[in-house]
Amino acid sequence: MHYHPKSDLLNNRIILITGAGDGIGREAALTYARFGAQLILLGRTESKLASVQQEIAARNLRPAFIYALDLLTASQQDCQRVADQIAQWVPHLDGVLHNAGLLTEITPMAEIQLQDWMNVMQVNVNATFMLTQALLPLMLKSASSSLVFTTSSVGREGRSGWGAYAVSKFATEGMMQVLAEEHKHTGLRVNCINPGGTRTSMRASAFPDENKDKLKTPADIMPLYLYLMGDDSRRKTGISFDAQPGRKAGPAE
Ligand code: NDP
């Protein structure tokens, strides 16, 4: 995507990112902070969140809050506690980027371990739903807020071996469409991003033998992440966007 936002695109915007300690979420945090946003960094590993928080502070950007939460074990009460804590910190949320995700072994449906299936559904679908439900009131307090889910090309067209992960991303697309429809007359827009193959540890676990140099980095795909959090996307809702339009799914050669 060719998008050149103004340097103050996200000034005064308050954005929560899940899975902000690593990979695409980490890059989104640093990028949003650079464009003026105040951030709430949520993730599983507190030390990784603290390191992103320190990096933001070292660049003299708006100080970020951190909240450690393991989405694998998170309950509805835990998600409500997140919302209650955030309401103590800030008056509203202008953006939520649901980026945390779990990918387990690539294996045929017939061989998926039930616990793996449950874990993927818990992190990618149930926790995403519970957090969204808890955070909606804070988002609706903003005059214009953006809810962004993270999908995948296997969430649009099933692919052999991608089992629970693919099904969870189809569910993510569905969650986005329902919410977008429900909120089309409010200030909340709801969309999905498909990052496309991107150089992170999740990608390396799925395609250990591919040529990593051929993959885009998290920094390369940030234009779409910026576009969807800023005012230029104000009228876009119910859309599943590609950060790398035209890229063929599968390993980089
Ligand atoms: P990474 O594995 O690099 O990062 C995932 C982040 O999510 C990490 O910060 C991780 O925390 C966090 N996370 C994982 N499980 C939990 C949990 N139980 N509770 C809280 N946080 C958790 O993945 P990517 O950056 O590659 O992926 C980001 C998103 O993009 C995912 O939704 C993924 O499905 C999607 N995606 C990625 C593609 C790619 O090629 N990279 C392609 C298509 C979609 P921790 O740091 O503690 O491990």
From TrEMBL:
Pfam families: adh_short (PF00106). PANTHER family: ALCOHOL DEHYDROGENASE. NCBIfam families: PRK08945.1. Keywords: Oxidoreductase. Transmembrane segments: none annotated. SMART domains: PKS_KR (SM00822). It comes from the Bacteria. Belongs to the short-chain dehydrogenases/reductases (SDR) family. This is YciK family oxidoreductase. Residues 13-211 form the Ketoreductase domain.
